[in-house]
Structure formats: structure tokens, C-alpha cells
Design brief:
It is a single chain. This protein is mainly alpha-helical. The protein has one domain (2-424): Sodium:dicarboxylate symporter (Proton glutamate symport protein), CATH 1.10.3860. The chain has 22 helices and no strands. Helix 3 runs antiparallel to helix 8 (171-197), helix 7 (153-169) packs antiparallel against helix 8 and helix 17 runs antiparallel to helix 18. Bound molecules: aspartic acid (ASP). The site of aspartic acid has 15 residues, from helix 18 and helix 20. Aspartic acid (ASP) is lined by residues 271-273, 307, 310, 350-355, 384, 387-388, 391.
């Protein structure tokens, strides 16, 4: 018992993940007997897994709101917000553009859709993505409480930033209210720590369900597509991001990546940038050293508008579907895909599978059959989990670069490999 307490949270989650995969595979190989379907997959694993996701989601709205009010009310210079916003959005768009261009080039060169066998399709319902003009209008909430109740990130961000600025402008009254928000923020962060303790059980259950219910056949037929998406995701995370971090931030990518360990595991198992926001905030503030002023704004914004991993899947999937149906895309259509992927991802919340919904809109814009999505749906969950890791890595990287450029990155924390590990190891009462 004593030795298990010495393990860091990420180590515990990692072990839980391996054990979950083994348990799931055993059930899968045993043909998922009825008892395991009833008692485990639809029973204990589902309950524990869903409770874990609900616990994380439960924190998102209060945490984003309170943290952002704290962040924006502590800005001494209101111009800083405009500057930070501009830089952040520019970097988010730039990294997404690189991602989708890389993906389309890979699809053109490696032609994953040219295969000589039929692919079994999975029944799918295609939803429409929201048009960009509507995203802009919806950014301003007519009712902030309704926006919070629905968990709509952009209107919450908008309202929280305005409230924070008004608090600063309200002088003494504002100081009292700001202090109150700071206290609530500290308490919610404690709640995040509590919830994270439950992660190993949740992760075990979610991975066990995935391993028990995945079919090797669908992966075999789509091997080239899956392999290509993985390869480009890895290149983006391990070559493109480190290069940008070094060139624009002058920071060591290795030190940065190592600190994301626990965060990566959370993103992978939940497949949701949104549900991961509490852990992303905790990581960039405590482990990497970004100030709350910057992180409270850039992290929730990134979870909503920055989805590089998703853009990679969408770029390759577009190439795949065009090739599978034998449709040649013109250069103008490729450019259209790039623009559509970037625009469509803005305003689409980071939740599981949303990338496919957005892809439907992209496909119909360039005249490809949106039903093509049915071809890749069967293998999407694992790709969704992996691209979510890239999505949150991008959010954290841009956050770090922006913080550094504003003098809001604590380099002592960034350079200290053990910084912020306290929340992983210390007893909760400390
Ligand atoms: N699951 C992804 C995320 O939350 C979005 C997607 O690609 O479907 O970031």
C-alpha cells in the first residue's frame, strides 16, 4: 500500500490503462460472453467509465468561468487582452493550417483510399456543422446562464472576459469581488485534484470497453488509412510542435513534452479536449509555469477552436474518401478543404467524434459524398483518442509560447522537472 502511494498519478493511470487493455482483450478473445457484456461492458465498466467522464465534465463550466474571471480581472493592462487574443488566435490558426496541409499532402502521396477490397460501412447519421457566420453570432450569449447550462464554451469565454474587465474597472468593489473569485478558484482547483484521484479507475474501465468491443477486421481493411493518420499525428506532435516551440518560444521541447504525461493520458482516454480542460489548466499552470492570466483564456479557447489532430484526420479522410470513390480533386478543391477545415473547427466544441460531424460539412462543400464517413466510422474511436492528444498538446504549446512572449511564463517552474507534481503525490489535505 505504502509503495503504491509513491507512484505518481500518471504512472497509476498508465498502469490502469495497460491492465484495462489486457482485461478488454481477454474478453474480446473469449468472444465477449453474455455475462461479461451484461455485468462488465454494459455494467461495471460502463458505470465507472461514464462517472469518470461526468466528473471531469462537471468541473469544466465552473472552472472555465471562475478561472477566466480571475484571469481577466487580474490584467493590469486591458490592452494585454487584445494582444494575447490576437497572438493566440493567429497561432491556433497557423498550427491548424500546417496540420491540414501536412495531412492532405500525405493523402496525395500515399493514397490510402486506393484499395482493392470493399469496406464494410457502419451506419451513421450525418449531422450538419454550424455555419461560420452563426458561430460568430452565437459567440455573444443572449443568456449567459443558458450558455453555461449548455456548456457552450465561446459564449462563456466572452461573458467571463467582459465580467473580469468590469470587475477591474469597478475599483474597490471590484477588488472585493476579485478576491472572492480567487478563493473560489482555489477551491475548484482542489476539486480538480480530488477528481483526478479517480482517474485510474475510470481509465481502466474506458480502455477495457474499447479493447473488448473493437474488431480487428475493420482495422485490417483500413490499415493504410489508420497508419497514415497515426504517422501524421506523430509527426505533428513530435516534429512540428517542438520546432515551433524552439523557434518562436526559445524553449526546450523535451522539457515541455515530458510534463504533459498525465495530461496526455487523460486526453487519450476521454477523447475530449473539453472534458480535459481542468487537467490542461492544472498542467500548464502548475507543471509548466504559465500564469493564470494567460492560461485561463488560451486553454478553453484552444479546446474549442484549436484542433490540429482533428484537422489531420479530416485532411487524410477527405483524400481517402475521394480516392475510394475514384473522384479527382482539383487544386481549388484542396484549398477549399484547407479553409473549410480551419473555419469549421472554430466553434465546434472538443467532444468525442465531433471531428466526423465537421468532416461531413467539409465533404459536401467540396462535392464529395458525405456518406463516405460511414467507411471510416468503425475505426474512428482510437483515432479520436489519439488526435485529442494532439489537440491538447497544441493548446498547451501555444499557451506556453504566448505566456513566454508576455513575460507570463515562470521559467523556474518550466525548467524544474518536479514542479507541480505535488498535486499528483501529496495527500489531498495538504
Ligand atoms: N475528440 C476531439 C477533441 O475533443 C475532437 C474530434 O476530433 O472529434 O478534441
Amino acid at each position: 500500500m505504502a509503495s503504491s502511494n509513491k507512484l505518481s498519478l500518471s504512472a497509476k493511470i498508465f498502469i490502469a490503462m495497460i491492465l484495462g487493455a489486457i482485461a478488454g482483450l481477454v474478453l474480446n478473445l473469449a468472444g465477449n460472453p453474455e455475462w461479461s457484456q451484461i455485468w462488465l461492458i454494459d455494467g461495471a465498466f460502463r458505470v465507472v467509465g461514464q462517472i469518470f467522464i461526468s466528473l471531469l465534465k462537471m468541473l469544466v463550466v465552473p472552472l472555465v468561468f471562475v478561472s477566466l474571471v480571475c484571469g481577466s480581472s487580474s490584467l493590469s493592462d486591458p490592452k494585454m487582452l487584445g494582444r494575447v487574443g490576437g497572438k493566440t488566435i493567429a497561432l491556433y490558426l497557423m498550427t491548424t493550417a500546417i496540420a491540414v496541409c501536412l495531412a492532405l499532402s500525405a493523402a496525395v502521396v500515399f493514397k490510402p483510399g486506393i484499395i482493392d477490397q470493399e469496406i464494410a460501412t457502419v451506419e451513421t447519421q450525418i449531422a450538419e456543422a454550424t455555419p461560420f457566420t452563426q458561430v460568430l453570432i452565437d459567440m455573444v450569449p443572449t443568456n449567459p446562464v443558458a450558455a453555461m447550462a449548455d456548456g457552450q464554451m465561446l459564449p462563456i469565454i466572452f461573458f467571463a472576459v467582459l465580467l473580469g474587465i468590469s470587475i477591474t474597472l469597478s475599483k474597490e468593489t471590484g477588488v472585493r469581488v476579485a478576491n472572492w473569485f480567487q478563493d473560489i478558484n482555489a477551491i475548484i482547483m482542489k476539486l480538480v485534484t480530488l477528481v483526478m484521484r479517480f482517474a485510474p479507475y475510470g481509465v481502466f474501465s474506458l480502455i477495457a470497453i474499447l479493447a473488448a468491443t473493437s474488431s480487428a477486421d475493420s482495422f485490417a481493411a483500413l490499415g493504410k488509412y489508420v497508419g497514415l493518420v497515426f504517422a501524421v499525428l506523430f509527426i505533428h506532435a513530435l516534429i512540428i510542435y517542438p520546432t515551433i516551440l524552439t523557434v518562436l518560444g526559445g524553449l526546450s521541447p523535451l522539457k515541455f513534452l515530458v510534463k504533459l504525461k498525465a495530461l496526455v493520458l487523460f486526453a487519450f482516454t476521454t477523447a475530449s479536449s473539453n472534458a480535459t480542460i481542468p487537467v490542461t489548466l492544472e498542467t500548464v499552470e502548475k507543471r509548466i509555469g504559465v500564469s493564470n492570466k494567460i492560461a485561463s483564456f488560451t486553454v478553453p479557447l484552444g479546446a474549442t477552436i484549436n484542433m490540429d489532430g482533428t484537422a489531420i484526420m479530416q485532411g487524410i479522410a477527405t483524400g481517402f474518401i475521394a480516392q475510394y470513390y475514384g473522384i479527382e480533386l482539383a487544386m481549388s478543391q484542396y484549398l477549399m478543404v484547407v479553409v473549410m477545415v480551419i473555419l469549421a473547427s472554430i466553434g465546434t466544441a472538443g467532444v468525442p467524434s465531433v471531428g466526423l460531424v465537421v468532416l461531413a460539412g467539409v465533404l459536401s462543400q467540396v462535392g464529395l459524398p458525405a456518406e463516405g464517413i460511414a467507411l471510416i466510422l468503425g475505426v474512428d474511436r482510437l483515432l479520436d483518442m489519439t488526435r485529442t492528444v494532439v489537440n491538447i498538446t497544441g493548446d498547451s504549446m501555444v499557451t506556453t509560447i504566448v505566456a513566454k512572449s508576455e513575460g507570463e511564463l515562470d521559467l523556474d517552474v518550466f525548467n524544474d522537472p518536479d514542479a507541480g507534481l505535488a498535486y499528483e503525490r501529496q495527500p489531498i489535505s495538504k
